[in-house]
Specification:
Length: 208
Amino acid sequence: MRTALAAVVGQLDLELPHYPISYGSADFRVTGGRFRPAQAGPPRLPAHGQDWAPVLRGDGDTVSGLTLTALLSQLLVAFMVDYADAGGGALVVAEALVRGFGMKSTVPMNDVPPVLGVNGSGKSGLERHGLVTVRPDPDDRPIKVAELSPKGQRARDAYAVLVRNVESDWTARFGASAMAAVRDVLESTLPATDPTLPDALIATYVQS
């Protein structure tokens, strides 16, 4: 796994966080918007918020001294940055909407995964950002339902297409063999992965 991850991370233009983190509680994206435009480079710089300072990767070996978790984090954060730069917003939010709603626009509150943090107060992350609203069920008013707004539906529906686009771009940038190696080692760990870990990661963002 270390060899496969290092082969890709070592080609990234930026030195990225060793633990995934968003721009802040007001913005689930890593880079915080498009206040400063992207630069094609080299080095490639994504569009980013006013306070997000890109750190260029140094010369020479920048990966052998990293822990495995830091390598994984940089890979994940780089993917999240490119997803947002492609116009997809926060990857972690879109993925959460896919998991929580599937192809439905409205689901009973009892069926909303707790990880989404939707509570009907209007103050939870997805409600505050206008992605989800909570209202009484028109057929049974004591029951509440969660409904994707048009903005939430666009974020949900764009997820699969943009993920494929970023994967295609990475294959061209880093090489098909390097990307195949990363996919193989990550997929091989799935049977041993604690299924609660992705939820914990998502909760870090959507419940901010």
